[in-house]
Amino acid sequence: xxxxxxxxxxxxxxxxxxxxxxxxxxxxxxxxxxxxxxxxxxxxxxxxxxxxxxxxxxxxxxxxxxxxxxxxxxxxxxxxxxxxxxxxxxxxxxxxxxxxxxxxxxxxxxxxxxxxxxxxxxxxxxxxxxxxxxxxxxxxxxxxxxxxxxxxxxxxxxxxxxxxxxxxxxxxxxxxxxxxxxxxxxxxxxxxxxxxxxxxxxxxxxxxxxxxxxxxxxxxxxxxxxxxxxxxxxxxxxxxxxxxxxxxxxxxxxxxxxxxxxxxxxxxxxxxxxxxxx
Length: 278
Known about the structure:
mainly alpha, elongated
């Protein structure tokens, strides 16, 4: 009986001893310095290990007490995600950064990167139109807010490309309507190009198609007006030559165009016709 009591006491003491030992072994580690985490992120970034770098920058952000350093870590984490084409995650991170650190000195770069990501999401003007519209929206926002920044020139160039793609989309749809002889929606699409994308390479063809459709529908006056705009701006283009062939059967467009040059008041003439077709 005494032996059993002694055995039980020893077992209890061993269990208690192990429990105390476990508590010592699994004591919580000291918090890792955010500077160390940030440095690990920089080294991974330089090795182009962007995924691991993003993870380290995110950890650093959570541990930094200085707002400026936390903001920088957040922005670097999003840039790393952009670097591996994790576009949705990068956009989410950038939007969170803008909401969390609206006064940070690097906010302008975050807006620029958002615009760049939307631009890179554009694939084909014949496919989804949403990325084109969203990229155009982001670039317009940036150019309005930061027109004189170092990034503005690059985004203006990209905006021109977007405008051309948007015009190409409208022309593609217009041609589809023409092929199915749906003249009204075709005209509406072509007018969008004339009104909104008159600085793109597609304006000439759009005007010519309006000449063709209007003439086909018996709207000769409208056809002549579109031809005048085409001749006024692009009288050496192949589209003007084709429009001339359409109308020259019973209307000398070249003669009308020459006469209008003499008696018009330059810009007022063009504005009047453009306003008429809007």
